[in-house]
Amino acid sequence: MSGHPDPALILALVRALSPEQRDGVLEHLVRCPACARLAGRAIGEVRAAERGRKVLAFGRAAAPRTVPPAEAPPPRVWWSRPRADVAELGRAEDLLDELMAQPEGQRPLVVRNCGRFQTLPLVELVLEEGRARCFDDAHAGGRLIELGISMIDLLDRDYHGRRLLDDLRARGWAFRANAHRIVGDLGAAEQGFRRAGELLEGSTCRIERAALCQLRASLLKVQNRGEEAGVLLHRAAEAFEAEGEETKAGRAYATLGSVLIDMGELEQAEQALAEALVRIDATEDSRTLWAVRQSMVAALAYQERYQEAAELMAELAPEWGHYRDADTRTRRRWIEGKVLAGLGREEEGEALLDEVRREYLDGGLPLYAAYVSLELALLYERQGRTAELRRLAEEMMPVFFAREIPRETAVALSFFTRAVEQERVSKVLIDRVAGYLRHAQTRPALRFADYQ
Questions:
Q1: What average pLDDT is seen over the chain?
Q2: What number is the average pLDDT over the span 263-292?
C-alpha cells in the first residue's frame, strides 16, 4: 500500500532501540492488539506518510509502557514476523474496503476461503466498522461484528497466543452486546457483556477492561442503574487516562455526562461533558464530539440557561443532516422546543413540544409523552391557560396503565393531575414532579414523598 514506510525501515527503527525500550514496547504491543495497530499508525504519522488514511474511531496511540516480567508474552512476538506479515497492518484498510464491497451474504465465505483476509489487523477493523455502523443501523452493525468474531477463529492461535485472541473476542462480544442494547434486547445485551467479562478474566490489558466497563455502563443507564454506571465510567476514564488514551477517556466522560443528566445532577453533568470536550480529538471521533455538545445543550436547557443552549444549538445545526437516528432527532426537537419556549418564542416552542408529545403517544411511549407534557405544562401555567392544562392531565392518564411503570412515577404524575383538577398548579410544583422523574430514572428506590 503506497504511502507507508518500507517495512525494513520499521524493523530498523525497532532494532535501533535500547534493549529496555525494545523489550518494553514489544512486550506491550504483542499483548495489546489495539496498541499494536495504533503504534503502526503512529510510526507512519511521524514520517508524514499516512496523512490521507482514515482514522479509527476507537482511539489513538497510547504511550508504550514496560510490562513486568510476570506478564511476559509468548516467545514469538508479532513484530518479529517476516516482512510480508508486518505489511499486513498497512494492507488492512484496503482489505476492509474490498471485503465491504462484497454482498453481505458472501463475506463469511470470502474470509473463510481467502487467507489474505485472515489477519489480526483486519479483524480489528471489521469489529470497529461494525461498532461504528451500529449508530445508524444496529442490526447491520451487529451482523458485521458477528463476522469479526467469527474471523478470530481463523487466526493462528499458536502464533498470536490464546490471551491476545481472548482479549479480542471479549471486545467483539462487548460490541455485539452493545448492539443488542441499542435495539432494546437487554437480555441478550446482559448475556453478551457477561461473556465478554469471562473472556477477560486473567487479562492484563487495562484498555480492553476499561472499554468493557464503558459499554456495560450504557446498559446500566438504560436499566435505570445510574449510580452503578457512574462507578464503571469513572473507573474506565481513569484507566484510559493512565494508558494515555485521551479520546477513549473522553468517551467515558461523555457517557458519564449523559448518565448524570438522567440523574438530574446537572452541574456534575456539565463538568463531565467539559472533560469530554477537551479530550476527544475531532479528527478521530467527530460523531461522539457532536453528541457531547448536544448533551451539553440539554444540560444547559435543564438549568434554564436558555441563551447559552440556543447559541450552542445554532453551532450544531449544520451537522444535523448527518444523523438519521430517529430517537436522537426526536429528543433534539424536544430540547429545542424547551429552549425556544424559555427564550420567549412560546408559539414555536409549544408547536415543537406538542409534536414530540404526540409522536411519543402514537409510538406507544406514554411515559416519554408525560415527560414532554410537563414541559408544556410549564408553558401553559406561565400563560394562565387552565383549559390546556386540563387537557394535558387527561391525556397523561394512559401512563397510569402502562406496563412496568414504576409505582413512584405513577404517584408523582398522579400528584400533578390532581393539582390540575384542583387548580393549584404552580411552576414550583411542576418543577418538583419533572425533577423527580429525572432523578427516578436512575434511582428507582427514590420515593416521591422524599423528593423536594
A1: 80
A2: 88
Query: Domains in the chain, start-ordered, CATH in brackets?
Result: 206-321 (1.25.40.10), 358-452 (no CATH)
d(C-alpha 389, C-alpha 372), whole Å: 13
Whether 217 contacts 232, CB under 8 Å: yes
Beta-carbon contacts of 272 under 8 Å, excluding residues fewer than 6 positions away, are 253, 254, 256, 257, 260
Q: What is the pTM of this model?
A: 0.70
CA dist 111 and 206 (Å) reads 30
Q: Which residue has 443507564 as its cell numbers? A: 221
pLDDT at position 113 is 93
Q: What is the DSSP string of 19-72?
A: HHHHHHHHHHHHH-HHHHHHHHHHHHHHTT--TTSPPPTT--PPPP-PPPGGG-
Distance in angstroms (rounded) separating the CA atoms of residues 343 and 340: 5
Cβ–Cβ < 8 Å for 348, 322: no
The C-alpha cell that represents 222 in the structure block: 438504560
pLDDT tens column, 299-356: 999 999 999 999 998 888 877 666 666 777 888 899 999 999 999 999 999 999 999 9
The Cα-based distances of 116 to 30, 92, 98, 197, 424 in angstroms read: 20, 9, 11, 30, 73
Kindly tell me if the per-residue pLDDT of 34 is higher than 70. Answer: no
3-state percent breakdown (helix, strand, coil) of the chain, nearest 5: 75, 0, 25
d(C-alpha 299, C-alpha 279), whole Å: 19
Q: How far apart are CA 451 and CA 439, in angstroms?
A: 9
**22: confidence class by pLDDT, cuts 50, 70, 90:** low
Q: Are 336 and 313 in contact (CB under 8 A)?
A: yes
C-alpha cell at 13: 527503527
Three-state DSSP state, 155: coil
The predicted-structure confidence for 132-183, as pLDDT tens digits, reads as follows 899 888 999 999 999 999 999 999 988 889 999 999 999 999 999 999 999 8
Tell me which residue has cell 436512575. 442
